[in-house]
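Hi R.,

As promised on Friday, here is the backbone we talked about, encoded as structure tokens. Could you run it through your design pipeline when you get a chance and send me back a sequence?
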């Protein structure tokens, strides 16, 4: 016998959906256009509301929440000026590939298309900076829209979603059942792509990996450390992704962002294999699109990215792999030795090589060895975890060739 869903207002249905999808905290500035949703939070008691005092701050907080947890950061803003203020954080989330859901108050449905007080067409306003913009006009469809918002914000290339909430819709009553909790989707590379990648890596003497994008985790960092040690590949971090890799790790080459050192830029241009793992290779990471030739870089380029539309957008890769930076499933194959256990896309290579490789320390940028850099180097997970545990130690001898390369003592942030 089916159990009939309870009658709830749209505001209560909305908050119940956020809670069942795992949202525990939302950020925003209270506004009269979504008072029914605030009442739903009071009744639900599972979702905490943090008053940011300014909507731009709320979406920036939601962006930080999404970066730290991998789950969509949730923000509320009222219509008109509130939505305008909130747009700054939405743009950051879009360019940084951060999962976010922004819920905006809207004028009543009977006032739409009349330029009512603070009325804005959110589809036109947010369309260029989001993955999806929609308006919920029927309270019975709230579970459907919220479920899609969570899937859209986290699937493929993560990013922001904006949903408009007409004020009168939030006070409507409906007996709609809840949607099931969303399940994050992952994209893994195919066997042929892995074989080609292994061949390119084996032939390279001066490879360089640039890590960036969304969907990162502490486990992915550990996997990448194992890959760097096993294959002697220098690791660099793209713009605003310095915390993706231990800056004091022996394999860390430097930050590919604003004002990189001329020596490091020369080393990047001189590489015989560039591996872009999750990085878009945008304006800042490529120093104004000057580090690589357009459309075909002079060195082989392996671009690993979860969105096929981004691969080849500016740079035509030698090998494009549609995959997440840190897929959950273990795609290791064969006898990969130390690199087999990690679950990142790069952990699938066997470690065989046909050419001697330049030591990772040779790729290090000028600034990464300075005293100032050593004092402020970013330690992954230190900002997100209040822990005194010691970071993983990199063996001082290459696990593949036996070649010694320097290991610097770990220091805490």
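Update: got your reply. Pasting your designed sequence below so it's all in one thread:
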């Amino acid at each position: 016998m089916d159990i009939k869903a309870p009658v709830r207002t749209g505001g209560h249905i909305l908050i119940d959906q956020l809670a069942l999808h795992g949202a525990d905290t939302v950020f925003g500035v209270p506004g009269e256009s979504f008072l029914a949703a605030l009442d739903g939070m009071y009744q639900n008691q599972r979702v905490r509301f943090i008053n940011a005092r300014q909507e731009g701050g709320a979406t920036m907080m939601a962006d930080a929440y999404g970066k730290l947890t991998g789950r969509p950061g949730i923000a509320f803003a009222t219509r008109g000026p509130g939505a305008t203020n909130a747009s700054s954080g939405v743009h950051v989330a879009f360019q940084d590939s951060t999962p976010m859901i922004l819920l905006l108050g809207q004028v009543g449905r009977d006032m739409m298309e009349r330029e009512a007080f603070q009325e804005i067409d959110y589809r036109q306003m947010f369309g260029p900076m989001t993955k999806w913009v929609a308006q919920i006009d029927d309270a019975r469809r709230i579970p459907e829209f919220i479920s899609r918002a969570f899937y859209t914000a986290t699937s493929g290339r993560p990013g922001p979603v904006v949903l408009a909430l007409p004020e009168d819709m939030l006070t409507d009553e409906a007996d709609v059942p809840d949607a099931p909790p969303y399940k994050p989707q992952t994209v893994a590379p195919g066997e042929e792509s892995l074989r080609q990648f292994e061949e390119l890596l084996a032939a390279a003497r001066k490879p360089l990996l640039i890590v960036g994008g969304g969907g990162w985790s502490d486990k992915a960092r550990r996997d990448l450390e194992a890959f760097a040690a096993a294959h002697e590949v220098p690791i660099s971090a793209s713009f605003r992704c310095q915390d993706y890799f231990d800056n004091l790790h022996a394999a860390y080459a430097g930050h590919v962002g604003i004002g990189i050192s001329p020596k490091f830029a020369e080393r990047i241009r001189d590489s015989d294999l560039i591996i872009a793992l999750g990085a878009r290779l945008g304006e800042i990471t490529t120093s104004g699109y000057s580090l690589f030739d357009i459309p075909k870089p002079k060195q082989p380029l392996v671009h690993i990215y979860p969105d096929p539309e981004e691969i080849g957008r500016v740079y035509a890769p030698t090998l494009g792999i549609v995959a997440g930076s840190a897929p959950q499933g273990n795609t290791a194959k064969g006898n990969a030795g130390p690199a087999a256990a990690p679950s990142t896309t790069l952990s699938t290579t066997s470690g065989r090589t046909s050419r001697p490789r330049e030591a990772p320390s040779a790729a290090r940028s000028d600034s990464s060895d300075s005293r100032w850099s050593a004092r402020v180097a970013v330690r992954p997970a230190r900002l997100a975890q209040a822990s005194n545990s010691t970071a993983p130690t990199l063996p001082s001898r290459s696990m593949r060739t036996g070649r010694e390369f320097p290991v610097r003592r770990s220091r805490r942030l």
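One thing I noticed while checking it: The first helix runs from residue 10 to 20.

Thanks again,
M.
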